[in-house]
Amino acid sequence: MRVLLIEDDPMIGQGLSKALAVEGMSVDWVRNGADASGALADGAHSIILLDLGLPDAEGFDLLKAARRNGLNAPVLVITARDGLDDRVSGLDIGADDYLVKPFELRELLARMRAVLRRHQGRATSRIISGESELDPETHELSHRNIVQVLPAREYALMHALMERPGRILSRAQIEERIYGWGEEVESNAVDVLIHSIRQKFGKDIVFNVRGAGWMSPKSRS
Ligand code: CA
Hints:
Structural class: alpha/beta
Distance between the termini: 27 Å
Order of helices and strands: EHEHEEEHEHEHEEEEHHHEE
Helix content: 40-55%
CATH architecture of the largest domain: 3-Layer(aba) Sandwich
CATH class of the largest domain: Alpha Beta
Number of domains: 2
Strand content: 15-25%
Shape: elongated
CATH superfamily of the largest domain: Response regulator
Largest sheet: 5 strands, parallel
Bound molecules: calcium ion
């Protein structure tokens, strides 16, 4: 899952980038309004974490403009401003949730899961596809009678496929979802991850559609 982090504070930015990477997310971090506008227009992110006070822009203005331009992804505001007016106008402008700094990482992760769940119209965080079930909280994947905790990239890959059961993702689409900007991606990286997942859960955990890509089967085979 690709996350856009808009935050000018280097300590918080670095800390969050690292912590979210450990959770298997690929984080694109921008530190000013100009870069943020470009990244928001890009539309490649599953969720956006938005700081309000940026050196060259107001987070609220960015959010307003992005929603006007059709940004659909959920936006979680992270800010030191805890005034009621700020919170209310943030939610009214199109933020999905509002978290006041300083916050615990655990709470941020839980709120991210909740926001994504609402956004995708699911009642629980667990993602179910065919005979597979993925838990975003523990990164545990169960398939038939096998249960294992996935390493970060394998989790990210399965999350991307299982979010859209029965739909094919090409190699480029998978890479875009699980690697951030400027990350070196080996040409066979996706194959290596799929191979490893199949070794643990069996070949039919992921279907290969020759020449097109991979998918997570929708129903029991
Ligand atoms: Ca700031």
